[in-house]
């Protein structure tokens, strides 16, 4: 996690850095700092614990000098508490002329630190990062060659890192290195940028290059070179960023999360655009590289974490039902440690908004090494997971800034439906006309989500009345089960309320013991038109918990009068294909968590202890 930005160019560097950090703040927000080399050639650093606003105020009160080169960092603490001292940048060497920022974890820092302590170096922080600053500064003091010193030290580091370095004695240069943590270059006219992702510089340029694994960037105002850790030159293709800076601003909404929930008709529509024609036929050109293999798949394993894993769970129902191939969903961090069975006919699907989640990245690398094919479903262009996969299906949700995932989740589910339809066609498991009918139902989703959003005010009213709830339970069945778990996760992370999602059928096997008078239970009710009469079974579950005193809130399909009969309140979603209901029924749960968090006066976009992109294992 942590956000990183670097700049060399004619603009006011402090403004460029702080603007970039503002857009990267979702990656970590427990401290922030910048270093610049001012026009008099002096290195100046300012860093403060707390949110970026504290640093901005500090700099406003006591401005840093004019500068045209600098680096900035927003932190999610790993080693060392979030204090001013542990904030980045860290300075290296006795003369403190080197400044360094880091995202990731240097796993061998203890060993390197002992070496430095023995050599008499004193440390100003408790971080793993500071060792790198001292090591590079000491090498530079010996040789006067910053690039070679940098190469030499990054080769010694183990673990995950994006590191940016500047030195007062080489005032035209920012160096960067990347291993297992993201780094993107922004190419401007007479200026160049570095960032953890394109959000860092999208307001200045749309031209970008994703830096590869174990690569170094040598960035100057009019020149960018990439090389590997051995100093051999590397060529990387440029890409154009397909969203503009305004997409990543709040645009009048009270929070990014509120905006992103409201964006969903658009983001779901964009994810289908060009892939689903009006007659319901799916075209996924992106999967061309896998075409030969799809009919012969032995199984699919989806690897993901958190919300993305719940999207994958929904995908499992659709793929198994339509394409008749076994699917399992695995939490990425568990997957590779249990010696899974993978063959060249196994398709591993990595699902990730950021495309940088370290657990998922490690799971897919393991899968590739074991001979499986890897498909990534991802929302971030040029992300590591996208680059390392055999094929990529981008969700076109646009930038998701709020830490809690909403529009990326629904876009992931929709991508999963597209994948399921594509697989069913390739494997010839369903009549084309059936698949087209489902495709046409999919096309209705944007308008249907817009209808669900109209109930936002009543959901908000309800959420306020739950302000003092100690625990909330969520029930669901079939595709509603992952939605129950997602509703519970949203409430935990945003409102800090204990919540659990259960499969409704599991209730009688234990969880029903939790029900007492007044216990709020939110139930995701299957369609009354479902062929397996799961609706009737869930209505029975509602009756069971109500009989024991629960206060039931139902998310049900329009016209489901039975759901209304036994519930304190019902939110209706439009009639849809039963497999597609999750995209609609999750929306009231997102609003519920958002409004409950806001009612408690919490920071909706940046909940405590979290960061958006989890780039550590
Ligand atoms: C919850 C949430 C997280 C992420 C998870 C995976 O609202 O956002 O649970 O879904 O950390 O992140 P990505 O999708 O970036 O791999």
Task: Label this structure with key terms.
617 residues; alpha/beta; Glutamine Phosphoribosylpyrophosphate, subunit 1, domain 1; Rossmann fold; 8-stranded antiparallel sheet; 6-stranded antiparallel sheet; binds fructose -6-phosphate
Report on the architecture of this protein:
By secondary structure, the protein is α/β, with parallel strands linked by helices. It has 3 domains: 3-247, Aminohydrolase, N-terminal nucleophile (Ntn) domain (Glutamine Phosphoribosylpyrophosphate, subunit 1, domain 1, 4-Layer Sandwich), CATH 3.60.20; 250-443, Rossmann fold (3-Layer(aba) Sandwich), CATH 3.40.50.10490; 455-603, Rossmann fold (3-Layer(aba) Sandwich), CATH 3.40.50. It is 35% helix and 24% strand. The strands form 4 sheets. The chain has an 8-stranded antiparallel sheet, covered by helices on one side. A 6-stranded antiparallel sheet has the order 5-6-7-8-12-13. 55% of the residues are buried. The mean pLDDT is 94. Bound molecules: fructose -6-phosphate (F6R). Fructose -6-phosphate (F6R) is lined by residues 305-308, 352-354, 357, 360, 404-405, 489, 493, 613-614. Fructose -6-phosphate (F6R) binds at residues 305-308, 352-354, 357, 360, 404-405, 489, 493, 613-614.
How would you sum up this structure in a few lines?
This protein has 617 residues and is of the alpha/beta class.
